[in-house]
Amino acid sequence: xxxxxxxxxxxxxxxxxxxxxxxxxxxxxxxxxxxxxxxxxxxxxxxxxxxxxxxxxxxxxxxxxxxxxxxxxxxxxxxxxxxxxxxxxxxxxxxxxxxxxxxxxxxxxxxxxxxxxxxxxxxxxxxxxxxxxxxxxxxxxxxxxxxxxxxxxxxxxxxxxxxxxxxxxxxxxxxxxxxxxxxxxxxxxxxxxxxxxxxxxxxxxxxxxxxxxxxxxxxxxxxxxxxxxxxxxxxxxxxxxxxxxxxxxxxxxxxxxxxxxxxxxxxxxxxxxxxxxxxxxxxxxxxxxxxxxxxxxxxx
Length: 300
Hints:
InterPro entries: AB_hydrolase_1, AB_hydrolase_fold. The chain is α/β, with parallel strands linked by helices.
């Protein structure tokens, strides 16, 4: 496996608003004084899933950076990933840093906050895969996938895991917005720059979903997940940054609302807040049903 400690941390991060073409104020003084949100994606490394959240957060004064684990062809160890994230936070030197992880990324983000709490102002975990440690059936699915040959891996991974990420509410909302209310079509007339951003981000998301990494990459990520969950189960009580868990109530993959309740009970209400997104499945919790700008005010 590659060691990310040998790589420039900046090469693995991107600004989604700039990449997808939304005009923003990039004045150096404003940038250095702005709070920073760093997003760590899920198991498959899909980085564009929260794209609807970024424009409102940028308008609220945040800078956004996304960790692109797929930028390297071989998945790093979790220690190297955490180290790369912490190196980036040191270089960014932001006055306030909110570290946000989705699913697998939640385990990595929490591990980073546990290792270097001084670099993390607050943590937001979206459907955190820390639930993996409490789900023997999911652990068995991961072991089964490790034995599947590359040629059969895409079909097997969908049958065992992918179908559980499906979010009927997300699809229904998208169909209504596009075909019935024609929101994007109307947005192209009223706010063409924002509409162009959505078009570019959606295209990138579709490309990420349709071009999955090879099986060996996922094998390494599952190994990281097991290691990270083991570390966190021993260390949750030592976690210092304020924690917010955002969980979909219809997450068939990780039962995230149950995991959120477990961690809230373990850490207590003073250290852990929970926001439930009603009806959201694993892959749709950060869609328009969640106003992340309002929610993160609990920990920022």
